[in-house]
Amino acid sequence: MTPELITDLDDPRIAVYRSLKATNQTRDLDHFVVEGEKLVERLLASRFPTASVLVTDRRWPRLAAMVPNDVPVFLIPFELIHTLVGFPFHQGVLACGRRLPWPDWRSLWTGAAESLTLVVCPKISNPENLGSIARLGDAFGIDGVLAGPSCPDPLSRRVLRVSMGSALRVPILVSDRLPELAAEIQTALGVTFLAAEAERGSTPFEAVDRPRRVALVLGDEDQGVEPEWVARCARSITIPMPGGASSLNVSTAAAILLYHFTKPAAS
Questions:
Q1: What is the dihedral of CA 237, 202, 217, 239, to 10 degrees?
Q2: Residue 211 phi, psi dihedral angles, 5° rounding
Q3: Dihedral, CA atoms, 135, 139, 141, 146, nearest 10 degrees?
Q4: Most CB atoms within 10 A, among 4, 154, 165, 237?
């Protein structure tokens, strides 16, 4: 692979990498951008096509063996990349992926094994929290995430960066009709929905055995799980907090709950 040298920042071939900080609204685009060597490697290994790679002249020798011959590579002088992307960028490599929809939930989970683990995020405001949830889900082997339309774009740079590419592997299904989608899955697959709340009257999570098929409903950072979602759930669970704090960050709570609900049952 011989990369094409780019010296003109107005070259249309690198337009997708221009002013990334000012153009982070990616939901309606047919492409997305990942940054850093590890994420580029994970994009190349994912189901998403890689449209191009942009790399600095300093980093290319390290990456030359990684990039397949059929992926266009654009080489840019190190001194120009900060101006191109619009912020100080020292990782030396970015890549553009082509957006693909995830398969329908029936294709993903109808033939699933006896157990099934889902996370439901009706409303998450912070992209870093969604990225953390995706990474945790990947680490604990969940089957997927159901997200509402007000959640961040799962393929935004911040979600991908914080997830360390897990958002490329874990199915994150964004639906404008999430309550109806959840009801379909609940009925068809026999999933037990549990609402994660900070309410003292909720059941401590350690007192709840893992349902065979479970969906953990996580709430908004400010308001928690909305009442209509609590009503959909078989029960509300909580993380006991004997200290002074009244709640946990949603991704921290997700880590604790996923560890409990994905660990093998004691023999």
A1: -50
A2: -65, 155
A3: -10
A4: 154
